[in-house]
Write a structure and sequence with these properties.
The structure is a single chain. The protein has 2 domains: about 1-145 and about 180-245, Spore Coat Polysaccharide Biosynthesis Protein SpsA, Chain A, CATH 3.90.550.10; about 250-320. It has 10 helices and 10 strands. It has helices spanning about 40-50, 75, 95-100, 125-130, 155-160, 200-205, 220-230, 255-270, 275-300, 300-320; strands at about 10-15, 30-35, 60-65, 85-90, 110-115, 120, 140-145, 185-190, 195-200, 235-245. Strands 1, 2, 3, 4, 5, 6, 7, 8, 9 and 10 form a 10-stranded mixed sheet that branches. The two termini are about 30 Å apart.
Length: about 325
């Protein structure tokens, strides 16, 4: 079975697959959505409801569930969507994404791994397919335009520390990524959001998600899209609008997030020796200062814990200890 090759510990396939009533599909491209999820049934149903209201429906949706309890009645509740359901346990974002991509039907030409807390605005799939039907072969990935991303703050200071850049969507030599703000026109970037990007089938067959990134898999999207972007062009489509309604980081997980911010980036640096380790340490110093500064301004103890996690991650990575960090960081 294909899923075994992506290190799935246990798989249960639902035999309840509904048939999409998608007579409105006027495009040559055939698109599928892979949705990894874990213990967030309300968010998943909200996403599926936003998909079901689209002017054009996806050809299939693969739910890759890592929840402690299996989800029920999805096919019955969303009869117009072609749903497949697979249960992966123990869960992990990259493992779930690889398992879902391995289940794509042969006729699928495009596929996206969507975050379960995404909400699609009307017409976003139609806009996406219209572009893909005419996209040149050198375009490998196209992202939905996440319109509720907060604009970066203190950008000048962050750019001095090589934590961010005025060159939107760049991957910096420090190993840090420049923020991707909402775009007003279709724009090419060097990295794309892992939970909102549609990939060409050829890309999916050529690249897998790195399962070194465990659990929440912080920074896996930069790792994956940066590898793809060295061979293909990456673009955000302004008209394919979505909202990312991400819950806040759990207060008691800020320390863990702080470690992830450093250790996972250092692993990324290790995979890309053309990047600058010196600039990575300089940028990470800036990250510690930024977390402490924002903690003072907002009176947030969680940001102090996050800064301490940055320091510990920096010390461990400096000693060559790249610890794989597991577990959920958000509800």
């Amino acid at each position: 079975m294909e899923a075994v090759r992506v290190h799935v510990d246990s798989v249960e396939m639902s035999d309840r697959i509904s048939v999409a009533e998608n007579s409105r599909q006027p495009f040559q491209s055939r698109i599928a959505f892979v949705v990894p999820t874990m213990n967030r049934p309300a968010e998943l149903r909200r996403l599926l409801a936003s998909v079901e209201c689209q002017s054009v429906l996806p050809d299939e949706i693969i739910i890759v569930d890592g929840s402690t309890e299996p989800m029920e009645c999805l096919s019955r509740d969303f009869p117009h969507l072609s749903l497949k359901y697979v249960r992966i346990f123990p869960p992990g974002l990259t493992k779930q994404r690889n398992a879902g991509m391995a289940m794509l039907s042969p006729h699928i030409t495009l596929a996206a791994c969507l975050d379960d807390d995404l909400v699609l605005e009307p017409g976003s799939i139609e806009t996406m397919l219209r572009v893909w039907d005419n996209a040149p072969k050198h375009v490998g990935g196209a992202s939905f335009n996440i319109v509720n991303v907060r604009a970066p703050r203190a950008l000048l200071i962050k750019s001095l520390f090589r934590m961010d850049s005025f060159r939107r969507g760049a991957v910096l030599r420090s190993g840090y990524e420049a923020t991707i703000a909402p775009v007003r026109k279709d724009t090419f970037f060097e990295w794309l959001c892992g939970g909102a990007t549609v990939w060409r089938r050829q890309v999916i067959e050529e690249f897998q998600y790195d399962e070194w990134f465990r659990g929440y898999a912080y920074f896996e999207d930069v790792d994956y899209s940066y590898r793809v972007g060295r061979k293909y062009r990456l673009i955000i489509l302004a008209g394919a609008r979505v909202k990312h309604l991400s819950p806040p980081v759990k207060e008691n997980r800020n320390y863990l997030l702080g470690k992830c911010q450093v250790v996972n980036r250092r692993y990324f640096m290790q995979k890309n020796p053309d990047l600058s380790v010196g600039l990575f340490y300089w940028a990470t110093l800036g990250l510690v200062i930024a977390n402490i500064g924002e903690g003072i301004l907002t009176n947030s103890p969680g940001l102090f814990a996050r800064a301490w996690g940055n320091v510990v991650g920096l010390l461990q990575s400096g000693l060559g200890r790249l610890e794989q960090i597991d577990g959920a960081l958000k509800d």
